[in-house]
Design brief:
With about 325 residues, the chain is mainly alpha-helical. The protein has helices at about 5-25, 30-55, 60-75, 85-100, 105-125, 125-135, 135-145, 155-180, 185-205, 210-220, 225-245, 250-285, 290-310, 310-324.
């Protein structure tokens, strides 16, 4: 068959592949049947390119096929591209739903708050308990930190430095809670329990101390974001560890690969909360703002958390349920 006849016979197929490439660029991979047909056309054009090179097709035709094959390859094997709408749906709808529906979240929530309030009550009721858990030197150091009113530390330069410290400190806590989950999730629960026991004991001791007003004034604003971030970090680590226990018939390596993206998403949310808490802890908590405004900051933080976890994702699900 002559070259011109081959080109004339194959040109309609090439045009169809061009149209498909354009469609995939705008819509992405959605239909499995369409992807299979696209792959078949792609393989056929690869054969056409090999034929064009061996039979020395006209240079413009060979160049055209080179470009067509390259474009089709890019669409077929491309990495997932960034799409604002898809990214927004994942972050605002899918991730919070996954967090709320994951038993690991509620296990971490129960462990943390159970130990936190239990140790708080015990430390408030019995000074010996606080000394045994935290140590007398630590208690004295914390009392000294909050002995002076916060107005005495109202310096912008110091706030910036402390914000940086809180970022690294909070990140360290979150990383330990998350990374220790690799030990079958037990490590995350132990780290979470330690932080809950330590913080609860400090809160209980400080509430009854002479520095109680200064302490409460300081911790109120950033508490919701920071403590929720600790819980979510542990939940992410627990989810990671559970993937090594309940493999669903897969190898532990494959199960870990499947579980890791979900755990990392939750850890990412916790990281954002840690950053927000650090900013509040550095600029709002130690400021001379009225305590009522700090309570308002805590209330707004709590509402934002509830809105994120229980709001948009479930609103979308409810609307879909009504539509069907």
């Amino acid at each position: 068959m002559k070259t011109v006849d081959i080109i004339a016979r194959r040109t309609p197929e090439w045009r169809e592949l061009e149209d498909e490439i354009s469609w995939f660029r705008h819509h992405g991979v959605q239909d499995a049947a369409r992807v299979a047909a696209f792959a078949q056309r792609y393989r056929a054009v690869c054969g056409d390119l090999s034929l064009a090179i061996s039979m020395r097709f006209p240079a413009n035709t060979t160049e055209y096929l080179h470009q067509l094959v390259a474009d089709a390859h890019t669409q077929l094997y491309r990495a997932e591209t960034f799409r604002l709408r898809r990214w927004g749906r994942k972050i605002l709808v899918e991730v919070p739903q996954r967090i709320v529906r994951d038993p690991c979240t509620w296990i971490s929530f129960g462990v943390f708050w159970g130990l936190f309030f239990g140790s708080l009550i015990a430390a408030y009721s019995n000074e010996e308990f606080a000394t045994a858990v935290v140590g007398e030197q630590t208690l004295q150091r914390v009392e000294t930190m909050y002995a002076q009113p916060l107005e005495n530390n109202d310096e912008d330069g110091g706030r910036s430095a402390m914000t940086g410290f809180y970022v690294f400190n909070n990140a360290g806590i979150g990383l330990r809670c998350f990374a220790s989950g690799i030990f079958l999730g037990v490590g995350s629960l132990i780290t979470l329990a330690f932080n809950a026991l330590f913080l609860g004991t400090l809160f209980g001791h400080m509430i009854r101390s002479p520095s109680a007003d200064n302490f409460i004034t300081f911790v109120t604003a950033h508490g919701p974001f920071e403590l929720t971030a600790v819980v979510l970090s542990a939940a992410a680590g627990l989810r990671l560890g559970w993937g090594l226990i309940d493999t669903g018939g897969k190898s532990r390596r494959d199960s870990l690969r499947a579980t890791s993206p979900q755990a990392l998403e939750v850890a990412g949310v916790a990281t954002v909360l840690f950053l927000l808490a650090a900013y509040i802890e550095g600029f709002i908590s130690p400021s001379s703002l009225p305590y009522s405004l700090k309570v308002a900051a805590a209330a707004i933080s709590t509402l934002l958390l509830l809105g994120y976890l229980f709001g948009l994702g479930y609103l979308v699900s409810w609307r879909r349920a009504r539509a069907t």
